[in-house]
Amino acid sequence: MSDNKPPITPGGGGAIPGPAAGAAPPSPPPPPPKDTFTVLFDGKPIEVPKHVNLIEAAKLAGIEIPHFCFHPRLSVVGQCRMCLVEIEGIPKIQAACTTPLKEGLSVKTTTEKVVQSRAANMEFLLINHPLDCPICDQAGECKLQDNSFGYGDQRSRYDEKKRQYAGFDRTLIGPHVIADMTRCIQCTRCIRFCQEIAGTGELTFLDRGGRTLVWTHDGKPLSNDWSACAADVCPVGALTTREFRFRSRVWYLEKTKSVCPGCNIGCNISIENRDFTVYRFLPRLNPAVNDYWLCDYGRFLSESLNLCEVEKATAREGDSVSELHVPAAVQKIAASIRGASPSDVFFLGSAHLSNEENFLLRKIADQIGCANRDAVVDRSRARKMKSKSEWIEGDHAGANFAGAKDMGMSPGAGGYGLEEVLSGKAKPAVIVAADAAFSQIADDPEKVAVLRRAKFLAVAARTANALTRAADVLLPASSLAEKEGTFTNVQGRVQKFERAFLPRPPARAHWELLLLLAVALGFGDRDWTPQDLRRQIQAEVEGYDEVTEEELSGGILMKKGTFVSVGAI
Amino acid sequence: MMGEKVLLARVGRADSRSIGTYVADGGYKALRTVLTGGWTPEKLTDEVKKSGLRGRGGAGFPTGVKWTFVPKDNKGKPVYLLCNADESEPGTFKDRLLMEEDPHQVIEGIILSSFAIKCRSAYIYIRGEFYLGARILNKAIEEAYAKGFLGENILGSGYALDLTVHRGAGAYICGEETGLIESLEGKRGQPRIKPPFPAVWGVFGAPTIVNNVETLACVVHIVNRGAEWFAKIGRNEKNSGPKLYCLSGAVNRPGVYEAPMGLQMKELLFGADFGQGMKGGKKVKAVIPGGASAAMLTAEEIEDCPLDFDGLVAKKSMLGSAAIVVMNEDTCIVEAAQNLSKFFAHESCGQCTPCREGTPWLHKVLTRIEEGRGRLEDIDLLERISNQMANGMTICVFADAAIAPVLSSVGKFRDEFRYHVENKRCLVGPRSDDARPSTLNPQLVAS
Predict the structure, then answer these.
(1) Regarding the domain delimited by B19-232, which CATH topology (the fold level of the hierarchy) does it fall under?
(2) Of A83, A111, A123, which to mutate for an interface test with B (greatest number of B Cβ within 10 Å)?
């Protein structure tokens, strides 16, 4: 394996506090009370935490032990037999994953016996494998492929008919997952995921010996809320998702660190994109939030990021709608705001917008002395996500309601909120809705009619709904993939998402549109970036003072909490 | 020489299955001795240790020592005794005889052994096919409960034991103790990773001892007649006690025979009290001494071959379950190896890669040779595949068992394999007694 190749092992277990720098001195031994063991890998001693698996410990020592069935969050079954190593004092070769760590354990990973047993295992794994990498979606992120290159013999002495699984190939076994048993290596990761993480146990082994296959119990569908994670943990192409199948070769995809927009749990994701198109979301390791997992609902929101219905800035004059440049449209909004009394302007933030955007919107309101501002969120079906230690629950349809409130998107002193506007108690002359998709209210004709009573209705949007159709000025905004920012999740954890690609002009990120408006209203700097806004948030918003840029780039920070370091998935 | 019958003493007696005749013949005396004679579990364990009793299921591990592996402080967890009555090793049929003909001897052995490890709940895991045995055992257990040998306060001693018969669903691997435990828990019969060993973490996560039917039956006689008496039977102290041998194959009188441990193989095959020679006066070609997973022995190797644990280890084979399968000069070794490999390919549980993939591969290569489509390099290939399947490559020793017949037949009868490949037929001539549809290549049959 070349050194610059990404590691085959996903994650190292979040609990491992970073690679233990360098090696501890070989002797003398450190003082007795310690929570680490000194383990020798090929004669090189290294301090490793007591609770990690030998495979993870080796990783800390910079040694890769190839494996298939081992997964840091699933029970250890030791059945793929790929991780065989020699342990000093034990004559027989041992599976690394099932060998308990202990003080002074001496592991040998490069002996002839080890090399031979790895090659033997690869040969066994491949004799009945179809070797159809050219048409397999897993190619490029396949452990079988990687380990075959790294440890296989590249030759096979198998000259018999390969095993077939008539009726168990290319079959949809749930709403999202397609199973192809000819590629399966019987590692049981998917079975264990369904039993141990999802707790639903839809998958099982059928038959035995060389005819063993993974399938659902009694043909019931694999339909738990996290079913596509079974395809994630599958090290080969046996389980793939219907949605991503045959859409792109994985090596063409760029990965961007992001946060799932689905709900307020704020699962860390990787947006996989190419040519201004989002192809899929993959979970990004964060032991404190979503660990290695992602729910199906959030995962398959990926396609919604490619939906763009508002492509141009438009302005309505009576019944006619005309296109115009974005700066001109912003000037129109600014003019309307300036033309109204501050108490007649209403600013509506959104749980779908970042902290920076909500913050900027509040600053605009403050600038003109307006206390009428609000943000609302729809309740969604309760969603659950298994972090390393506990279930986290969320039930917001937006990812950042907590953040929007923290940024001050609530009625100020003497101001009013959305409820007063909708009930008719308050009658703003100008409404600025920073996100047209803020709630289902925006697609309710009756409620939109109430909002429409304002003399001037300005809306930024990406997808069309009743509100955008009613707007006087409509600004084309970007998707999550096209901007940078932070969300605050249900735990109060501030998490940064990064920009995968630029929005297609003339669309701009919400914060950019808002910044244009701020400048038009006479404050702010045209050159501000989300980072500048974050600095202001840190200076002004209580509880956000600990958020530093450096820590955020690691992806995660607990608001008023401790920093959690995570490895890349 | 036959010697006194101990384990089979009551087999053949009228109504041998009933508790009435068992008690009349001195049954449950050992139980009375132990429970009302002031024996402690430790004393019983020591007695069994002193007797030199080694497990009759296959591995030959000293039974008394195994019992001591139950943790002294088991943190309030119950201890379980499992009687391994899966008897799945091909060629083995001794436990079946014990259970069907003298079930109370087995039950008494179980109660005594349970007492020794302080177990309150024991199970007999019997293979699914032994329907008759399960019925007989269940009836015998009912009788034992009725007489107060099972249940609460056995014989007024305060000791309580429940015994349950559990029928397996038909898998060879459930005879492996951790596979048995998984199966008893209601899961797939797949061996567990060891350590932890069952004595620490067994069935339902509690300390568990798994003993073979014959082993447990021996405990009764150790109590009745003393450890020294038991230790004196047999070739030496490490290979002691009476032993049941399952003789099958090309002999005149196949069957289960009891003899002191260390009986000479020749005596078993040709002795007047045992096999009474080869059927039709044919010559011995090969003998499997310990069930399908033991390496084959040649006719030369069975000269001076004591049938006990160490005697067969010296011959690089094993006593296993003492299933002696005799093959005569008309047997095609290639076909025998193919037949055995088919069994192992069918019975691999499928969790470990080398065994799951290796056993069918061996079978396919052997089938090719058998059907006349072999190549000379296949003979080496068989050895190479075998060598990369076993010795720690897998969780349990199934793979080690699966390769034993292949490696021994290829190693000892290499010329026959070579003949098969070169001439596309058996050295011993066409199969005559084969009622199954021919697996031979039709083209070759025609020519």
Answers:
(1) Rossmann fold (3.40.50)
(2) A123
